[in-house]
């Protein structure tokens, strides 16, 4: 049976909520008896791979991919980004992840990814679902030599949490041998999302159309009232009317450009990310604050301390890891600020585990997928760290990547000497 450190109990502080239940839920139950079902692999997964799908005992769907002639060597457990819109789990969610990360199967690793049991926020929940899928894999395909956790974006926070929750099992080191966090939303929901609350405030001051003056008013930290009928296309239209952000700069009115410049400069974001961040600060906030936190505010100077504590308990890293952790982050990531890496490092420093962390950075301005040869370089370096005890450096990983440029047809863009500032420095606090 999986044993985890008991989460902080906040029942005396908060009404029961889904996030609270996830944080206090016992370890995942045993896998359901039904075996994974064989399915044709989606492109671009190699055509000679074998793929399987299924649904676990909590309702999460999953895909599994095995490379040709796989010898139970390396399994990559993938934690996907998001979080997705609230709602039931779907098999398509996991299929999309397998397609995006087909490179892991091309490298000869088995891949398994959970949809998570539902859409919406819940880092501990998603970590439990990822571990449950690992158990399903082992039950039906046998034990493996090495198991790696790979977390992308929001899934970086999920994988970081899973590495801590399952660091030990029955008094022994847990099932994961190493962790790769790519473009990770790290540091917990409070620190990762506070800037979006600032964005909502600035946007409303400038545009005054979310909500409009003739609509019901609400605290902006709520994101959106639960009974609101606002659609995403309608919000896009409002943002466009105010800022012209979807037009070339030359086609915006001077007033639109002035509004847009003020918003992005105060929120510390880039123009092309405005709509995405506003969407998260609307529907993600709606789910997080009202459905998961019992209509309590975890953001800004007026935050409810109990809501902050609960959100941190669910998502903030403690640094209590006992396996190698390797990260990569684009310096100009428009979605997850690169300074979140400083937050994560501080957690490991506080826990005394910083020797298990190596962070790398690239001179890119993307979030969802970086230059391709960098991923095999990272996976190979992580496995050598696990297998041979060879701790990599940003310089050695950059050197390892160079010969792979010709293989994968894209450049390596690591910047070995880069050190991010703190999140507070970026936000001017």
What does this structure look like?
The protein is of the alpha/beta class and about 425 residues long. The protein has two domains: about 20-185 and about 320-425, Alpha/Beta hydrolase fold, catalytic domain (Rossmann fold, 3-Layer(aba) Sandwich), CATH 3.40.50; about 190-315, no CATH class. It is about 40% helix and about 15% strand. The chain is built from 15 helices and eleven strands. A nine-stranded mixed β-sheet has the order 1-2-3-5-4-6-9-10-11, with helices on both faces. Strand 7 and strand 8 form a beta hairpin. Helix 4 (about 125-140) packs across helix 5. The longest helix has 19 residues, at about 125-140. The chain starts with 17 loop residues before the first helix and ends with a helix. Mean pLDDT is about 90; it is low at about 1-15.
The number of domains is 2
Name the structural class. alpha/beta
Strand order of the largest sheet: 1-2-3-5-4-6-9-10-11
**What integer value in Å does the Rg equal?**
21 Å
The CATH superfamily title of the largest domain? Alpha/Beta hydrolase fold, catalytic domain
CATH-defined architecture of the largest domain: 3-Layer(aba) Sandwich
Largest sheet geometry: 9 strands, mixed
Give the amount of beta strand, in percent: 5-15%
Distance between the termini: 45 Å
Form type: globular
**Low-pLDDT runs:** 1-16
User: Could you name the CATH class of the largest domain?
Assistant: Alpha Beta
Q: Average pLDDT, to the nearest integer?
A: 92
Number of helices: 15
Q: What is the H/E order?
A: HEEEEHHEHEHEEEHHHHHEHEHHHH
CATH topology of the largest domain: Rossmann fold
Report helical residue fraction: 25-40%
């Amino acid at each position: 049976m999986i044993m985890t450190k008991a989460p902080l109990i906040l029942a005396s502080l908060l009404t029961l909520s889904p996030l609270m239940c996830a944080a206090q839920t016992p370890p995942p139950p045993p896998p359901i008896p039904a075996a994974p079902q064989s399915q044709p692999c989606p492109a671009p997964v190699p055509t000679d791979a074998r793929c399987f799908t299924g649904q676990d005992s909590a309702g999460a769907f999953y895909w599994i991919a095995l490379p040709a002639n796989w010898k139970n060597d390396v399994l990559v457990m993938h934690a996907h980004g998001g979080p997705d819109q609230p709602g039931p789990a779907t098999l398509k969610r996991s299929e999309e992840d397998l397609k995006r990360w087909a490179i892991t199967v091309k490298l000869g690793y088995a891949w398994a990814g959970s949809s998570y049991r539902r859409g919406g926020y819940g880092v501990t929940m998603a970590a439990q679902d990822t571990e449950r899928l690992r158990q399903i894999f082992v039950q039906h395909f046998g034990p493996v030599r090495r198991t790696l956790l790979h977390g992308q974006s929001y899934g970086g926070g999920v994988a970081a949490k899973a590495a801590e929750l399952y660091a030990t099992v029955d008094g022994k080191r847990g099932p994961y041998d190493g962790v790769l966090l790519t473009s990770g939303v790290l540091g917990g929901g409070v620190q990762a999302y506070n800037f979006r609350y600032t964005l909502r405030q600035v946007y409303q001051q400038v545009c005054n159309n979310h909500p409009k003056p003739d609509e019901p008013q609400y605290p902006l930290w709520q994101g959106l009232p639960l009974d609101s009928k606002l659609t995403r296309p309608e919000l896009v239209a409002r943002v466009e009317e105010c800022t012209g952000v979807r037009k070339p700069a030359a086609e915006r009115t001077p007033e639109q450009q002035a509004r847009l410049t003020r918003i992005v400069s105060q929120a510390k974001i880039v123009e092309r990310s405005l709509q995405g961040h506003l969407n998260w600060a609307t529907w993600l906030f709606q789910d997080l604050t009202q459905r998961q936190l019992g209509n309590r505010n975890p953001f800004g100077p007026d935050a409810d301390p109990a809501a902050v504590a609960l959100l941190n308990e669910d998502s903030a890293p403690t640094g209590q890891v006992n396996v190698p952790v390797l990260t990569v982050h684009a310096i100009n990531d428009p979605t997850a600020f690169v300074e979140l890496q400083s937050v994560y490092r501080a957690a490991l420093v506080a826990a005394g585990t910083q020797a298990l962390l190596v962070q790398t950075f690239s001179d890119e301005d993307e979030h969802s997928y970086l230059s391709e040869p960098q991923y095999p370089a990272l996976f190979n370096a992580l496995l050598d760290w696990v297998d041979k005890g060879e701790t990599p450096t940003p310089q050695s990983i950059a050197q390892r990547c160079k010969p792979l440029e010709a293989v994968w047809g894209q450049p390596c863009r690591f910047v070995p000497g880069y050190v991010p500032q703190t999140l507070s420095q970026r936000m001017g606090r």
